[in-house]
Amino acid sequence: AQSVTQLGSHVSVSEGALVLLRCNYSSSVPPYLFWYVQYPNQGLQLLLKYTSAATLVKGINGFEAEFKKSETSFHLTKPSAHMSDAAEYFCAVTDHFGNEKLTFGTGTRLTIIP
Amino acid sequence: EPEVTQTPSHQVTQMGQEVILRCVPISNHLYFYWYRQILGQKVEFLVSFYNNEISEKSEIFDDQFSVERPDGSNFTLKIRSTKLEDSAMYFCASRLAKGGVETQYFGPGTRLLVL
After folding, report:
1. For chain B, first and last CA: distance in Å?
2. A–B: how many Cβ contacts below 8 A?
3. pLDDT tens digits, residue range B25-51?
4. Cβ-proximal residues to B1 (8 Å cutoff; 6+ apart), any chain
5. pLDDT: which is higher, A99 or A89
6. Residues of chain B falling short of pLDDT 70
C-alpha cells in the first residue's frame, strides 16, 4: 500500500523567507507524486507533479519539489514566500502502473507572517 | 479554463435522510472520482468511475453509497441514509485519460453536515 506523510500540520514563515513543506512517501513500486494546494473555500489545485521525467520539478507560483529516492522524499519549496501563498498544501501519491486513486497526506497549513 | 463544478456548496441534513451531491466534470474527461475529507483529517478516496461503471472503491464506499452519471454532464454521489460520521467535505474530480501521470482536476467541494 502507498502512503505519504507530511511533517508539520502548521508551518509559519515570514514574507520573503524560504518555504519548505515536507513530504515523505512509502511505495513498493515507483511512485507518481503530486502537490496540491487548497485556498480557502476553493477546491484542490495542482501545483506540480513528479512522473519520473526529472527529479526536480517546477510548478506554478514559483514552487518546486525534488524527488529523492534515497530519502523517499518529495519536499516542496519556494525561495521567497508571498502573502498569497497562505493556504493548505497536500502531498499525494499514486503508482507507476496507473492505479487510479490518489492517496493524500494530512496536509500542511502554511501561514505567512507579514 | 475548464473546471469541475459541484453543487450545492453546503448541505445540512438530518441523520437517516438521503442526500445527492452533484458534480459536473470537465466536458471531455472520461474518469471520475469522489473523495472526502472529514474535518481535520486527510483527503480519502471513495470511488472511481469509468465507462458507466465503478472501477475501484474504497472500504468507506459501502452499500449506503452509490454513484451515477445520469446524463452526459453530471456525476452524482448518493448517500441513502446519512449517518453523523458522513459529515465531511466531499470532492469530485475528473481526469482525461487513464494513467498515474494524468492529472486529476478537483472541484471546490460540498460541505455536508449531518445532524
Report:
1. 37
2. 61
3. 999 898 999 999 998 888 999 999 988
4. none
5. A89
6. 99-100
What is the Rg, in whole angstroms, of the alpha carbon atoms belonging to chain B? 13
On the 0-12 / 13-18 / 19+ scale of CB atoms within 10 A, A100 is buried
User: B23 and B90 in contact (C-beta within 8 Å)?
Assistant: no
Beta bridge partners of A19: A78
Distance in angstroms (rounded) separating the CA atoms of residues A14 and A112? 5
How far is Cα A42 from Cα A45, in angstroms, rounded to an integer?
Answer: 9
Nearest residue of chain A to residue B41 (CA atoms): A106
Nearest-Cα distance to chain A for B39, in Å, is 11
Nearest CA in chain A to B108: A43
Q: Rounded to 5 degrees, what angle do the CA atoms B69, B70, B75 make?
A: 35
